[in-house]
Amino acid sequence: MLSSFQTSFTGAVTNRKFLEVTANNLANVNTTAFRGSRAEFADRLYAELSADNVGLDPAEKMILPEVGTGSSLVATSIDLSPGSLAITDNQFDLAILGNGFFQLIQPDGTTAYSRDGSFAMDSNRNLVNSSGYVLQPTVTVPTEAIALRISAGGVIDVDVPDPDSPGSFIQQEIGTIQLAVFDNDRGLDAIGSNLFVETAASGAASVLSPGVGTSGVLKQFALESSNVDVATEMTNIILAQRAYQLNLNALRQMDEMLALATRLRR
Amino acid sequence: MLEGYYSAVTAMAAMVAEQQIIGNNLANINTVGYKQDIPQSQQFDKLLLLALRRDRGVGAVERASAIVGRAGAGLELLPVAVDLTDGPVAQTNRPLDLAIIGNGFFRLRGANGEDTYMRAGAFDIDVEGTLVNRFGEALLDVDGNTISVGNGDLRILTDGQLLLNGQLFAQLALFDLPEGSDWKKIGGSHFEPAGPTDTPVPTQSLHVLQGFLEQSNVDAEFQSAEMLSTLRLYEAAQALLRMQDESLAQAVREVGRVG
Known about the structure:
The structure holds 2 protein chains of 2 kinds.
Chain A: H1 2-27, E1 37-43, E2 46-48, E3 66-68, E4 71-78, E5 85-87, E6 94-97, E7 101-105, E8 111-114, E9 120-121, E10 127-128, E11 134-136, E12 148-150, E13 155-161, E14 169-176, E15 179-181, E16 189-192, E17 195-197, E18 206-208, E19 217-220, E20 222-224, H2 230-262
Antiparallel strand pairs in A: 1-4, 2-3, 5-20, 6-19, 7-8, 7-11, 7-15, 9-10, 12-13, 13-14, 15-18, 16-17
Helix pairs in contact in A: 1-2
Chain B: H1 2-27, E1 37-43, H2 44-55, H3 60-71, E2 75-82, E3 89-91, E4 98-100, E5 105-109, E6 115-118, E7 124-125, E8 131-132, E9 138-139, E10 154-156, E11 161-164, E12 167-171, E13 174-176, E14 183-187, E15 190-193, E16 201-202, E17 208-210, E18 212-214, H4 220-254
Antiparallel strand pairs in B: 1-2, 3-18, 4-17, 5-6, 5-9, 5-13, 6-15, 7-8, 10-11, 11-12, 13-16, 14-15
Helix pairs in contact in B: 1-4, 2-3
C-alpha cells in the first residue's frame, strides 16, 4: 500500500521538473542565441505485487500483476536548432549562420564556447562578450578607428586616419574571427551565461575560419534569437501543471484509502 | 462465516493494487512512448484455475479444486494488460526524434550485446557517431547493425530508409511479437516479451516520422474515473468487512445466552 504513495510522489516530482525546465525556457525567450532544453522521462522499474512469491518453485508461483513504480527524469536534452536572426544597428553584433561557436577566454584561463555574438569593447579596446570574457583570437580595435566591418569570412577591417593626408581615412585589417566546430555539438556541456564547454562526448574543438570546412559564416549587424517556441512552452506548462495535480489527486486518494483501512478497528 | 471476511479483504487488496496501477499511469502521463496499464480483476477461484492452467497440465486443475473451495470467493487481480494503442504524436522538429505510427518497436543493442525494445524514439549521436537512445543503447537497422551517422546530415523517410547527406545507406526495421504473445514493460521505457521463448520478428511494413515523438497514451479522464470507482469499491468492501465483524461479535455475545 505504501509503495503506491511513492509511485504518485515520483510522478509529482517528475512533472515539477518538467515545469522547471519549461519555466527556464520561457524565461530565456529573449536571451540571445539561447538553446531551449527538453525534459525527457521514462517509467521506473516494474515489480510483482506480492513478495510472497519470491523463492517459490516456478510451478508453484501464481501469476501476479507486475506493477510500475512511477516515473523519473532521464535527460534534459538541448535543442540545437538555430534561432532566427534579428537585425540590429550595433557594429559589434555578430550572428553565426550555420555551424560553429565563438571562443571566449574565461577568468580561469580556460576556453568557453558561445553562439551569442553581442560583443563590446573593454577598457583595453579588446572585443569582449557581455560577461567581459575576451574573444579569441584577441581583436584589439585601434584608438582612432571609426567604422568597423566584419566580413562573412570573419576578416575585421576598420577605417583609421591616413597619416599621409590628414582628414582622410584608410582601411586597415585588424584581425580575423575564428570559429570552433565540434564533432558532436550535443555533447557540449552548458555552464550557464550562454556558455558551453567541451567534454569527452563533444570531442575537441577544431578551430576554423568562418566558411571553411563545416564552419558557418558570420553576419554583422545581426544577432541570433533564442530558439524557444513560446507556444510549445506554454502548452508544456499546462501539461506539466495538470499532470502534477493528477498525481497529487492520486496521492490524496491513497491517503483516504489508508484512513479507511485504519478505521476498520474502532 | 470467515469466508465473508476473505471476500471483503481480497476486494480491498485488489483495489489497493488497482490504485497503484492507476498511480503509475498518471505518473507517466508525460512519458514519451509510455503505454498505459489496464488492471483486470475477476473472482478469486476463477483466477486460481486460470493460473494453474497456465503453469501446469490441465489435469492439475481438478487436483487443486479442493483448495480453491476452501479459499473462498473474493477478488484478485489478473496480470496487467498493456494498452498498446498509439499515443498522440507531437511535432518536435528535432532531426533525431522518431515517432512510430502503428505497430512495431525499435530494436536496440545494449552495452552487453543484449537486444532491447522500445517505442520512445528520442535518439542522440554518441562519441563514435553512432545513433543511440538516452541510455546509450544503439539503434539497429534491418540487418542488426548499428547505425553510424558521424557528423553527417541524417534524413529518415517514412518507410524507414536512412539517408546520410542525401545518400541511402541503411534501412530501419521495427519489431513486433507474433499473434498470441504479449509485451511486458520493464522500466526505463523498455519492453520485453512476456514469455521467455517469444521472439520479436520484423514487421511487414513500417511507418515512422522524423521530427516527431509519440506521447504517452495515458487517458487522464479514464484514469480519474477509474480512480473514483476504485475508492468507492474500497469503501464498500471496508463497510462490508465491518458489518461482518459486527454480526460475528453479536453471535459471540448472544448465541447461547440463557435467559
